[in-house]
Automatic annotation (TrEMBL):
InterPro entries, per database record: Gfo/Idh/MocA-like_OxRdtase_N, Gfo/Idh/MocA_Oxidoreductases, GFO_IDH_MocA-like_dom, NAD(P)-bd_dom_sf
Superkingdom of the source species: Bacteria
Coiled-coil zones: none
Name under which the protein is recorded: Putative dehydrogenase
Pfam families named in the record: GFO_IDH_MocA (PF01408), GFO_IDH_MocA_C3 (PF22725)
MF (Gene Ontology): nucleotide binding
Domain Gfo/Idh/MocA-like oxidoreductase N-terminal, chain residue ranges per copy: 6-124
PANTHER family found in the cross-reference section: BILIVERDIN REDUCTASE A
Length: 343
């Protein structure tokens, strides 16, 4: 039996670009054909490791020459739009790493190019595939908890992510990097759109370490049907934390509540003379050399939906509204005033 494989290209051969390559390489319905990075050495290293046949340093050339069906855009947060528009113009489907884009203009340009070219586009807001969140969503949908009333979500990283892992943290924000996941999750669980936000930031710790970005944002969110949520996103959790993420969630509904602790779970605890850690078993855990976590599931779902033609579980409209609400939070944190989200 012949299997139809989706021929994939990847732009951005950094940390997360390698995650994409490993997933396409092992997915039965995907074939990683091409990879592009401005840094040729990086692109070649990943190409060799995962059997990717074409290497480019110019994404325009890859878009025009490579016989791919779709592209994964895995460049820094603020460098998604030009690449997305170019590949859409070359009739390639798009999987864009979160966030969709970081300015109102870029968000509009991508949506226009997707619409005009009739291509499909998903943004990798993968927390919907996180098993505890997915179960919480199912419980809410069952109706037994009543209506979502208030929620608290905390999704923060240890400092190391901003100071060492990302070379471009100064040009982004924890609101883009993790806040976009938090907000997409809240919108999905409340099944509602954000009406107004009030965000306050603290800064100083990262600036003193040479990274010119805010440390932490605390945001109050009002939904259109009256739900309220508090969202906390920081890049300054101590590096000694047992998990790279500090990830908590609680949801109060009119007839029940649900609470999640995803970073201090009791499923596995590992202690050496140096450190105690809570290994990741949800995001990118490996089972017999295969990535099985939610970061695998969302990317696999993109391929599956291209094969079966069904709607993506994160629509372009989801990612557009999430990005526009994050822009409102950033504006609120600058002005010190609540901001109505403009869609
Ligand atoms: N889904 C997740 O949970 C998750 C996790 C990590 C990163 N990300 C996202 O993935 C994206 C990339 O993050 P990363 O950590 O891999 O960053 P990274 O810095 O490790 O890699 C980015 C790569 O893009 C390349 N690049 C930049 N501009 C380019 C251009 N014009 N053409 C070709 N290559 C170019 C850089 O040379 C670099 O190799 C970001 O949007 C980030 O938010 C998502």
């Amino acid at each position: 039996m012949e299997i139809k494989q989706i021929k994939m290209g990847i732009v951005g051969a950094g940390t997360w670009g390698e995650t994409h390559a490993s997933i396409y390489a092992e997915h039965l319905f995907a074939d990683p054909v091409a990879i592009c990075d401005k840094d040729e050495v990086r692109a070649r290293a990943i190409a060799e490791k995962y059997g990717i046949r074409e290497v480019y340093t110019d994404y325009n050339e890859m878009a025009e020459k490579s016989d791919i069906d779709a592209v994964a855009i895995v460049t820094p947060d603020f460098l998604h739009a030009d690449i997305a528009c170019k590949f859409a113009d070359c009739k390639k489907h798009l999987l864009i790493e979160k966030p969709l884009a970081t300015t109102r203009e870029d968000i509009g340009r991508i949506c226009e190019a997707v619409e005009r070219n009739g291509v499909r586009c998903m943004v990798d807001l993968h927390n919907r595939w996180n098993p505890p969140f997915n179960t919480a969503k199912q419980e809410v949908e069952s109706g037994k908890l009543g209506e979502p009333y208030t929620a608290y979500i905390r999704h923060s990283d240890v400092k190391w992510v901003a100071t060492d892992m990302l070379k471009w943290a100064s040009k982004s924000s924890i609101l883009w990097f993790l806040g976009s996941h938090s907000l997409d999750t809240l919108r999905w669980i409340f099944d509602d759109e954000v009406k107004r936000v009030y965000s306050i930031k603290k800064e100083g710790i990262l600036k003193a370490l040479g990274v010119d970005t805010a440390d932490i944002y605390l945001t109050t969110i009002e939904f259109e049907r009256g739900g309220i949520a508090h969202m906390e996103n920081g890049w300054v959790t101590p590096n000694g934390n047992t998990n790279i993420n500090d990830f908590k969630f609680s949801l109060l509904c009119t007839k029940g509540m649900v609470s999640l602790d995803l970073s201090s779970h009791n499923l596995i605890h590992l202690v050496t003379d140096e450190k105690a850690v809570t290994p990741d078993i949800l995001v990118s855990n490996m089972v017999f050399d295969r990535c099985k976590g939610l970061s695998y599931e969302s990317i696999r779902d993109f391929i599956d939906r291209l094969v079966d033609g069904k709607e993506f579980r994160v629509t372009l409209e989801d990612s557009r509204k999430t990005a526009l609400a994050i822009i409102a939070m950033l504006e609120s944190s600058e002005t010190g005033m609540p901001v109505e989200v403009e869609y």
